[in-house]
């Protein structure tokens, strides 16, 4: 009997679709299941880039109607109104959706800090965030430090930063300055950041950027009951209301602690304050979809606002502890590298000194050899002169004897005639005078020959002393250069005079001796987290006070630098190319106001009076 086979069942397969997620420094591609939710995609991206501070970020996309939206995490990706192109994959942008109140205290992970740095930098360069010219130069110097590391005069060349996008185009157009002039001002501050790591430079960039008026503000066009066009700014601290022509200074502000409930009805947006005696804050937007986005941003910022004012969760404490440990480890590593770099520089300097001393010794040896050669040539020349003088003296003596013989012959022939006698007398007198001169010249030449002999003897004695002095000098230098093996070999190989066998054996013994290595042991005691767990409160207070004083001094120094740069480039400003934001910022500087003083002014008064003020705009 044949056994009945079970029916064939086709294995269920789930359809998938390609997705591309772009961060500001990378592109990621995934294949998602058809039923995947926004949370699945978001978690996948966060795991890929190693991000744990996920509450600041979101996935942004352009919907089918061209409106910028954020992906809802609790809904399926395919059920949201995403613009679908059958010929390409679905694209998302992984961006910061919410901003911290204080970057130095809240951003824990380095990857979080880096993503914020890239996004804020792009917003400043694209002029979405207004930045004054002097602050733009300072931020550009920190961006260069984060990208290229420490400034090096040997490798830096003028024009090296020309290809980098460092300043907003608005700033470049406002001044009669070339790109080289801007680069020189950036280079001056870039050189001051020596020793700063990439994460420290990025954090300094964010600390300065968070003080800009438009930092962390999401602007939406709204109208009040009088249909006056205004701007609504959603921030980490609350809601700001701006006039249509001024995005820098809010006219009024409502913090999240003053808001009890937020809702919208069609295009009407309603905010109920905590004070029940105050009227509701009502405004109108252009589209219902915009109200949904405003509500989403308000809810997220309000949640983070309340979370910051509660004790840190266990997960956040662990993240901060891990970040502190990693920071300490990197600091130890940087200290070790700095120590090794210092030792290497000292070794290089010592090597340069030895090479310099070697060159000096070589020059002294060359001069000694040259002096010895000149001494030998002088001795040879004096010997030759002495020989010539002796030959001349012998020749003069021979001529004197011949003259005497001639005188004798003349005297004998003078007896012949009287006339001849007179002639002979005359010739005799002449011959005697000539003989006297020759005798005198012979004596003089003989004296000169004796003098040359004496000089020759003295020159040979000096030559002997110079040779002895040179051998003694070479022996002393051979022992003084025994610090390093390679310089000794160079000196001995370049000596023009040969060393004695005893000196040569001493040099070889010195080369075989090992040179003492520098002690690179670093006794570093790492106390990881005793301060967090069992720290002394008084010590912590002192450290906090010291950090506050250091920060105030650094901030004061920074303000002075910005003020000097502002006055330096003010003469090159082109007035007609100033934007409205530039004029508003100049007025704000003249009044001595900044972002925080403006916010304090806008929050003054009761909630009721601020609502009434908004309605009267």
TrEMBL record:
<keyword id="KW-0206">Cytoskeleton</keyword>
<keyword id="KW-0175">Coiled coil</keyword>
<feature type="domain" description="FERM">
    <location>
        <begin position="17"/>
        <end position="309"/>
    </location>
</feature>
<dbReference type="Pfam" id="PF09380">
    <property type="entry name" value="FERM_C"/>
</dbReference>
<keyword id="KW-0472">Membrane</keyword>
<keyword id="KW-1003">Cell membrane</keyword>
<dbReference type="GO" id="GO:0005856">
    <property type="term" value="C:cytoskeleton"/>
</dbReference>
<feature type="coiled-coil region">
    <location>
        <begin position="548"/>
        <end position="575"/>
    </location>
</feature>
<keyword id="KW-0965">Cell junction</keyword>
<dbReference type="InterPro" id="IPR019747">
    <property type="entry name" value="FERM_CS"/>
</dbReference>
<dbReference type="InterPro" id="IPR019748">
    <property type="entry name" value="FERM_central"/>
</dbReference>
<dbReference type="InterPro" id="IPR014352">
    <property type="entry name" value="FERM/acyl-CoA-bd_prot_sf"/>
</dbReference>
<dbReference type="InterPro" id="IPR029071">
    <property type="entry name" value="Ubiquitin-like_domsf"/>
</dbReference>
<dbReference type="Pfam" id="PF00769">
    <property type="entry name" value="ERM_C"/>
</dbReference>
<dbReference type="InterPro" id="IPR018980">
    <property type="entry name" value="FERM_PH-like_C"/>
</dbReference>
<dbReference type="InterPro" id="IPR011174">
    <property type="entry name" value="ERM"/>
</dbReference>
<dbReference type="InterPro" id="IPR011993">
    <property type="entry name" value="PH-like_dom_sf"/>
</dbReference>
<dbReference type="InterPro" id="IPR046810">
    <property type="entry name" value="ERM_helical"/>
</dbReference>
<dbReference type="GO" id="GO:0005912">
    <property type="term" value="C:adherens junction"/>
</dbReference>
<dbReference type="InterPro" id="IPR000798">
    <property type="entry name" value="Ez/rad/moesin-like"/>
</dbReference>
<dbReference type="GO" id="GO:0030182">
    <property type="term" value="P:neuron differentiation"/>
</dbReference>
<dbReference type="InterPro" id="IPR019749">
    <property type="entry name" value="Band_41_domain"/>
</dbReference>
<dbReference type="Pfam" id="PF09379">
    <property type="entry name" value="FERM_N"/>
</dbReference>
<dbReference type="InterPro" id="IPR018979">
    <property type="entry name" value="FERM_N"/>
</dbReference>
<dbReference type="InterPro" id="IPR041789">
    <property type="entry name" value="ERM_FERM_C"/>
</dbReference>
<dbReference type="InterPro" id="IPR011259">
    <property type="entry name" value="ERM_C_dom"/>
</dbReference>
<dbReference type="GO" id="GO:0016028">
    <property type="term" value="C:rhabdomere"/>
</dbReference>
<dbReference type="GO" id="GO:0005902">
    <property type="term" value="C:microvillus"/>
</dbReference>
<keyword id="KW-0966">Cell projection</keyword>
<feature type="binding site">
    <location>
        <begin position="72"/>
        <end position="75"/>
    </location>
    <ligand>
        <name>a 1,2-diacyl-sn-glycero-3-phospho-(1D-myo-inositol)</name>
    </ligand>
</feature>
<dbReference type="GO" id="GO:0009887">
    <property type="term" value="P:animal organ morphogenesis"/>
</dbReference>
<dbReference type="Pfam" id="PF20492">
    <property type="entry name" value="ERM_helical"/>
</dbReference>
<feature type="binding site">
    <location>
        <position position="292"/>
    </location>
    <ligand>
        <name>a 1,2-diacyl-sn-glycero-3-phospho-(1D-myo-inositol)</name>
    </ligand>
</feature>
<keyword id="KW-0963">Cytoplasm</keyword>
<keyword id="KW-0009">Actin-binding</keyword>
<feature type="coiled-coil region">
    <location>
        <begin position="316"/>
        <end position="469"/>
    </location>
</feature>
<dbReference type="GO" id="GO:0003779">
    <property type="term" value="F:actin binding"/>
</dbReference>
<protein>
    <recommendedName>
        <fullName>Moesin/ezrin/radixin homolog 1</fullName>
    </recommendedName>
</protein>
<dbReference type="InterPro" id="IPR008954">
    <property type="entry name" value="Moesin_tail_sf"/>
</dbReference>
<dbReference type="Pfam" id="PF00373">
    <property type="entry name" value="FERM_M"/>
</dbReference>
<dbReference type="InterPro" id="IPR000299">
    <property type="entry name" value="FERM_domain"/>
</dbReference>
<dbReference type="InterPro" id="IPR035963">
    <property type="entry name" value="FERM_2"/>
</dbReference>
């Amino acid at each position: 009997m044949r056994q009945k086979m079970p029916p064939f069942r086709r294995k269920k397969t789930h359809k998938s679709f390609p997705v591309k997620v772009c961060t500001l420094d990378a592109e990621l591609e995934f294949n998602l299941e058809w039923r995947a939710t926004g949370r699945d995609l978001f978690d996948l991206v966060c795991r890929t880039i190693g991000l744990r501070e996920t509450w600041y970020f979101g996935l942004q996309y352009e919907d089918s109607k061209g409106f910028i939206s954020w992906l809802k995490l609790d809904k399926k990706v395919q059920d949201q109104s995403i613009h679908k192109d059958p010929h390409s994959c679905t694209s998302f942008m992984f961006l910061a959706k919410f901003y911290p109140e204080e970057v130095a205290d809240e951003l824990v992970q380095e990857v979080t800090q880096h993503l914020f740095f890239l996004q804020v930098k792009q917003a400043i360069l694209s002029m979405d965030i207004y930045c004054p010219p002097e602050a733009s130069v300072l931020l550009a110097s920190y961006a260069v430090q984060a990208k290229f590391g420490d400034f090096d005069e040997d490798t830096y060349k003028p024009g090296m930063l020309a290809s980098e996008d460092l300043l907003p185009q608005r700033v470049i157009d406002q001044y009669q300055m070339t790109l080289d002039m801007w680069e020189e001002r950036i280079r001056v501050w870039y050189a001051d950041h020596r020793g700063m790591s990439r994460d420290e430079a990025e954090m300094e960039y964010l600390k300065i950027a968070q003080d800009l008026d438009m930092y962390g503000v999401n602007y939406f066009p709204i109208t009040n009951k009088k249909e006056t066009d205004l701007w609504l700014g959603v921030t980490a601290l609350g809601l700001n209301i701006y006039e249509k022509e001024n995005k820098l200074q809010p006219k009024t502000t409502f913090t999240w602690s003053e808001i009890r409930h937020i809702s919208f009805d069609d295009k009407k947006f309603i905010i109920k304050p905590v004070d029940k005696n105050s009227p509701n804050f009502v405004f109108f937007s252009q589209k219902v979809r915009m109200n949904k986005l405003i509500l989403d941003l308000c809810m997220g910022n309000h949640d983070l606002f309340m979370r910051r004012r509660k004790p840190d969760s266990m997960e956040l404490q662990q993240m901060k502890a891990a970040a502190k440990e990693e920071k300490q480890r990197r600091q130890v590593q940087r200290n070790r590298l700095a120590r090794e770099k210092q030792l290497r520089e000292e070794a290089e300097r010592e090597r340069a000194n030895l090479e310099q001393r070697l060159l000096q010794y070589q020059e002294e040896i060359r001069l000694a050899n040259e002096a010895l050669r000149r001494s030998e040539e002088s001795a040879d020349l004096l010997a030759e002169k002495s020989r010539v003088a002796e030959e001349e003296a012998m020749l003069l003596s021979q001529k004197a004897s011949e003259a005497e013989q001639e005188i004798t012959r003349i005297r004998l022939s003078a007896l012949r005639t009287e006339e001849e006698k007179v002639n002979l007398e005359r010739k005799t007198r002449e011959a005697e005078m000539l003989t006297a001169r020759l005798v005198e010249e012979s004596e003089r030449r003989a004296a000169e020959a004796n003098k040359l002999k004496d000089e020759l003897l003295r020159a040979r004695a000096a030559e002997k002393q110079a040779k002895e002095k040179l051998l003694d000098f070479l022996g002393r230098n051979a022992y003084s250069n025994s610090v390093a093996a390679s310089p000794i070999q160079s000196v001995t190989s370049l000596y023009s005079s040969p060393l004695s066998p005893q000196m040569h054996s001493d040099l070889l013994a010195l080369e075989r001796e090992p040179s003492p290595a520098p002690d690179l042991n670093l006794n570093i005691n790492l106390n990881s987290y005793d301060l967090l767990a069992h720290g002394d409160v008084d010590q912590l207070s002192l450290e906090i006070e010291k950090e506050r004083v250091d920060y105030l001094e650094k901030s004061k120094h920074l303000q002075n630098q910005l003020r000097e740069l502002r006055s330096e480039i003010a003469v090159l400003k082109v007035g007609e190319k100033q934007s409205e934001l530039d004029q508003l910022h100049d007025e704000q500087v003249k009044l001595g106001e900044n972002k925080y003083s403006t916010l304090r002014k806008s929050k003054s008064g009761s909630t009721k009076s601020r609502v009434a003020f908004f309605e009267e705009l």
